[in-house]
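TICKET #2291
ISSUE: user wants both folds in one file
ATTACHMENT 1:
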Amino acid sequence: MATPARKTRPRLRRSPVQGRAQATVEAIVKAAAQILARHGPEAATTNAIAARAGVSIGSLYQYFSDRDALITELVRRHVAQMREVLAAALQGLEDRPVPAAIEQIVAAIIASHRVAPRLHQALHQSLAVSRLATIDRFEADLEEMVALALAAREELAIADPGLTASLLVRALGGLIRTTLRREPERVDDPALAAAMTGMILGTLERARRA
């Protein structure tokens, strides 16, 4: 299964060509991620981020024009990590029987959502709807990957692979995010993965062509 193409990386305000400058950018990004994950969007001001990173506010603005530019860079990095985890978790999917393949898809989606889940939630809260394009693209690519996998399985005979994939990915994504927020310990419960696998298999059965 091909891995979706990644978006072109947005440029920083100033390119950190020297090692020291790159270390400064990394410290700023790490500090922003820590504050967002631990304290939420309202606490992640540029002054607070600069203070945690141990740099002056002027140094922060050398590389990021404003807080939104910094959050956008965080989103880019976060989604890149999710893509890597997902791609690795989906290796060999085509060669597995349908029930085992569905189990693998469930495990892959759970794994991708376990990449800094508190940061993921904070990033959703930090960006205006119009700026969520990077996260939306990741989810749309995941839907496309699942749709292609469903369409390739002739034995499933799915009437509308695209619609079925969208329903499954969005349902699982919402379920996993809610569980991570309210009962994070349950995400590692095999019973939850088994229940989601059963839900998918039931949906696929109902989605067959008449």
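ATTACHMENT 2:
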Amino acid sequence: MIEGLSVLALIPARGGSKGLPGKNIRPAGGRPLIDFTIAAARAAQCVDRVVLSSDDDEIMRVARDCGCEVPFRRPAELATDEASSIDVVLHALDALPAHDLVVLLQPTSPLRTAEDIDGACRLMLQRDAQSCVSVTPAEQSPYWMFRLSGDGLLDPLLTDSARASRRQDLPPVYVLNGAVYVARCEGLRRERSFVGPRTVGYVMPAERSLDIDTPADFEAFARLVS
């Protein structure tokens, strides 16, 4: 709980991943991948309840063994490639309505810490925002990006005529890193998005912003924690 508000941490982990089969429970450093997220959520001071949303029996078993609640099974229609993450979150809020804030924590961001979760929640409340999402400095600046026109000419992605010629003069830009999404439940139901006009960004360093999507990503993480 934080400032008298009840906080639900939701970990989405469906079966049937095509890019990296079984990734959510694949072992790294002697632990299933999902355990890193469960452990961070359970250690966060602001979180009252840590819950899994899954359609997969083995993922549910592993999550329970790691100390995560599994109070429901995700419906099949919300476990397809086409299902949106917001519908998964809203399904969980309908099943568990007695919470003020929801924190979405994807298992594929295993390097985020309990302090990151608490920090994002505090930042959202300090700024009186509707939501907070974690970001990290972008590796490439859009100020140096171009499209190719039909005749092959470079067309700047940004029309700002003040594009800097030196990297150190470029304005800082950030990208979502997928690690932490926090929102007020009432507003999330209304807006159906974690990102909107009243969203603040919680900045995380690149070294905690790994998002596991490919076998190479997983191998890099496994080496890191071995």
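RESOLUTION: both attachments delivered.
EXTRA DETAIL ON ATTACHMENT 2: Residues 1 and 214 are 35 Å apart (CA to CA).
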